[in-house]
Design goal:
Elements: E1 2-8, E2 21-27, E3 35-44, H1 48-52, E4 73-80, E5 90-93, E6 100-104, E7 109-110, H2 127-140, E8 147-150, H3 156-167, E9 171-176, H4 179-187, E10 193-196, H5 202-209, E11 214-218, H6 223-229, E12 233-241, H7 260-269, E13 273-276, H8 280-300, E14 307-311, H9 316-323, E15 331-335
Parallel strand pairs: 8-9, 8-11, 9-10, 11-12, 12-13, 14-15
Antiparallel strand pairs: 1-2, 3-4, 3-6, 3-15, 4-5, 5-7
Organism: Nocardia terpenica
InterPro entries: ADH-like_C, ADH_N_2, ER, GroES-like_sf, MDR_fam, NAD(P)-bd_dom_sf
Protein name: NADP-dependent oxidoreductase
Length: 338
């Protein structure tokens, strides 16, 4: 079996370009015991992939030059040497940016297309949804009547955070880029308020949307967005730090004065809790409850999701570049095969 794949050709400096990737066709190895041959149906594109393109120290090893880009996939089992899955099964795996892959069966999770669309295992019922669930409930701990603010709020993590805050009785305020996304937060996802971080009066909009301050800020962006959030934080506010996409392509420190001292002074004076996290640290204890809770909320109409599906693996590079500047609307997924 041959596989067409997109590999990392070189490490980017700043925004990734087409030259940092290479498309090639390779022969896949024969199956060893406990393995399955998979055909990729859908590929998830996520901001963390930019970090994996760099060889700087991080929570996960970098993608090696000449190796396929990493990524979660929804795939069809074509052949297997392990009877825990069968030919034709639809599974969640980690095949990456390629049309076919060979993976250990022990890491696969069988999906039931009758229970939920398989693509949701890459979004609201997958890693992004669980990131929101574990980070908000474990670190943010929203209480009824509190104000929860989330950046990148129309993305799969942010949208889930806001709706989960509402389910917990809190007030949800979303930050997004552009009038279309702001309207989506209010009209589709049901946020109490939404503000446009691209507007010249963004800080004033945020202040008006949070008259009682901010009790939980779910951080996905960093940069100028956090600068506007910081003065609004209440005493004992909690900040789950999930991502900092505003700086993922930076090649040097941002200009201006060093504001670390100001931030640390705020942490001290307002007794802030700031906690970075990777969702895998909570998975063993919380993932089954997350799946049950979220599936129930979707069935009840209390949790909505949005997908941005791009057709063709050959469009993955440009779609990924767009993701890094907020061009997508909802969970970004590449449709690789029917």
């Amino acid at each position: 079996m041959q596989s067409t794949r997109i590999v990392l050709a070189s490490r980017p400096t700043g925004m990734p370009t087409a030259e940092n990737f290479r498309t090639e066709t390779v022969e896949l190895p024969a199956l060893a015991p406990g393995e399955a041959l998979l055909q990729t149906l859908y590929l998830s594109l996520d901001p963390y992939m930019r970090g994996r393109m760099s060889d700087a120290p991080s929570y996960a090893p970098p993608v090696r030059i000449g190796q396929p880009m990493v990524g979660a996939t929804v795939s069809r089992v074509l052949e297997t040497t392990d009877d825990t899955v069968r030919s034709g099964d639809i599974v969640l795996g980690y095949g990456g940016w390629q049309t076919h892959s060979v993976e250990p069966v022990r890491i696969l999770r069988r999906l039931d297309p009758a229970a939920a669309p398989p693509r949701t295992a890459l979004g609201v019922l997958g890693m992004p949804g669980f990131t929101a669930y574990s980070g908000l409930l474990t670190i943010g701990r929203p209480q009824p009547g509190e104000t929860v603010v989330v950046a990148a709020a129309t993305g799969p993590v942010g949208a889930t955070v806001g709706q989960l805050a509402k389910i917990r009785g809190a007030r949800a305020v979303g930050i997004a880029g552009g009038p279309k996304k702001v309207a989506l937060l209010r009209d589709y996802f049901g946020f109490d308020a939404a503000v446009d971080h691209r507007a010249p009066d963004f800080a004033e909009q945020l202040a008006a949307a949070t008259p009682d301050g901010i009790d939980v800020y779910f951080e996905n962006v960093g940069g100028a967005v956090f600068d506007a959030v910081l003065p609004r934080l209440n005493r004992y506010a909690r900040i789950p730090v999930c991502g900092l996409i505003a700086g993922y392509n930076d090649t040097e420190l941002p200009p201006g004065p060093d504001r670390l001292g100001l931030f640390m002074s705020m942490v001290l004076r307002r007794s802030l809790t700031v906690r970075g996290f990777i969702q895998t640290e909570f998975a063993a204890e919380q993932y089954p409850a997350f799946l049950a809770d979220t599936a129930g909320w979707i069935a009840e109409g209390r949790m909505k999701y949005l997908e941005d599906v791009v057709d063709g693996l050959d469009n993955a590079v440009e779609a990924f570049r767009g993701l890094l500047v907020g061009r997508n609307l909802g969970k970004l997924v590449i449709k690789v095969a029917d």
